[in-house]
UniProtKB/TrEMBL annotation:
It comes from Nocardioides piscis. Keywords: Membrane, Transmembrane, Transmembrane helix. The keyword Transmembrane helix applies. This is DUF6542 domain-containing protein. The chain crosses the membrane at residues 18-36, 42-59, 64-85, 105-125.
Amino acid sequence: MSQTGSVWSEGVEPGRQAVALGIALVLTIVAIDVLLVGELSFFFDLCFIVLCLGLALIVKPHDFFTVGVLPPLMMLAVFILLAAVAPGTVARPDDAMVQAVISGLAHHSGALVAGYATCLGTLALRQRSLRQAD
């Protein structure tokens, strides 16, 4: 099967829409996890990694950079939001906002590294595939 016209080579979403989708989905994942468990759990970590892979697969090639920098920014935004409204979901309930953000990032750093590596690796493979097709 030729890769011409495939999702792998062309993507389906421009960068801005991929970013909006990523933010909407990560907030949905957070809401589900917090409602079910009361804090961010391993479920969030797994979903975050899959989300990073999905975003790297759907973005159009000219917007690779946009999605390439998205995973750490998404995770930071999640922890800032949670530290502001419900610090007990990412740290101890009496932690200050900055400490809650740092605690959240530290506790979920494995997911951040795995998601970011998955995203960048997928984008690199797609870029290589596009160069070989030319």
